[in-house]
Amino acid sequence: MTDYDAVVLAGGAARRLGGADKPGLSVGGRTLLDRVLGACADAGDTVVVGPRRPTARPVRWAREQPPGGGPLAALAAGLKGTEAALTLVLSADLPFLRADTVRALLAALADAGEGTDGVLLADPDGRDQPLVAAYRGEALRRELALLAAEHGSLAGLPLRLLTAELALGRLPHPTASFDCDTWEDVATARARIRDDGGVLEEWINAAKAELGIELDVDTAALLDLARDAAHGVARPAAPLTTFLVGYAAALRGGGEEAVAAATREAVALARRWADEAADGGKAAAEGPHAPEESE
């Protein structure tokens, strides 16, 4: 994994949302800001530029000068708290951004070589998304300093003045750059999160964040266990068995292997139970321990 720092821009007036605290809006049980922070959880340093808010993981805070001075002023403020060669720059309203997309951006920039200053996400219409991008920190600092010297201040300057001076690559993605600028966007995001195709993953991620769990869970194995327990024993056995697996894993010290081992043992038990039920007691009567007839 490429080392990087992250700068998340969480300011702005959110005028199209009536001045609501956009990064604090909930989508799928988590705030938009926490969803973005989850996607870049392995950053070395994460600086959030904007008013302080509760967050699910620790971050560093910064404010642009003057407050509300726009994206370039906010980016400059955030960069002061970073040192890594690569900087991930994100807006705080990206409900569908995932860690794998972040890794893909960073990998594309690392593979592009020193002649490329950054890699931007491109939306389905081919539009550049400079606030869903990985940059070389040195290039950002250089161009921001030149713009500040030329205009006297970065406040109010459009982001395109920065990106026009950088050598940039593009990474297409169908959903990761979807942002929530209006209440209609928020409603769309909330509906998509609950779509049957991804609702289970969304719920698990939200539950892990709420409970402070970083463990990667083998959901397929646990679902198989729940199915075996429900079908082979009784329907209420499914949630109770998965609870007992988690409890047993915790007693063994936690971690992925503890969960996997407890799951395997419970699956074996559920299958034995089901096999006995299928035999209808016949195996017990005719098994290897039944007495042999005398000659």
UniProtKB/TrEMBL annotation:
An individual GO BP term: Mo-molybdopterin cofactor biosynthetic process
Keywords tagged on the record: Cytoplasm, GTP-binding, Magnesium, Metal-binding, Molybdenum cofactor biosynthesis, Nucleotide-binding, Transferase
Residue ranges occupied by any DUF6457 domain in the UniProt entry: 198-277
InterPro entries: DUF6457, MobA-like_NTP_Trfase, Molybde_CF_guanTrfase, Nucleotide-diphossugar_trans
Membrane among keywords: no
MF (Gene Ontology): GTP binding; metal ion binding; nucleotidyltransferase activity
Annotated ranges, domain MobA-like NTP transferase: 6-152
Family matches, as SUPFAM superfamilies: Nucleotide-diphospho-sugar transferases
Protein name: Molybdopterin-guanine dinucleotide biosynthesis protein
Organism: Streptomyces eurocidicus
